[in-house]
Design brief:
By secondary structure, this protein is an alpha+beta fold. The chain has one domain: RNA polymerase ii, chain L (Rubrerythrin, domain 2), CATH 2.20.28.30. Helices cover 15% and strands 19% of the residues. The protein is built from 1 helix and 3 strands, in the order αβββ. A 3-stranded antiparallel β-sheet has the order 2-1-3, with no helix packed on it. A hairpin with a 5-residue loop joins β1 and β2. The protein starts with a helix and ends in a 7-residue tail after the last strand. Bound molecules: zinc ion. Zinc ion (ZN) binds next to loops.
Length: 52
């Protein structure tokens, strides 16, 4: 039931949200990557969604 910190970290690790269309992008290297849906290069880490 409860998720470990390691599981949470894995869930948000390498996951970035497109700031244009809000698509989730699983990336190793966000600085070189674009959104898979719209091609926009503005991506933010998933975990920043907390407290939005
Ligand atoms: Zn996008």
């Amino acid at each position: 039931m409860a998720q470990s910190d390691a599981a949470k970290k894995r869930m948000f690790d390498n996951v970035y949200i497109c700031m244009k269309c809000n698509a989730r992008n699983r990336l190793q290297n966000p600085e070189k990557a674009n959104c898979r849906k719209c091609g926009y290069s503005g991506l933010r880490p998933k975990h920043r969604e907390i407290g939005r």
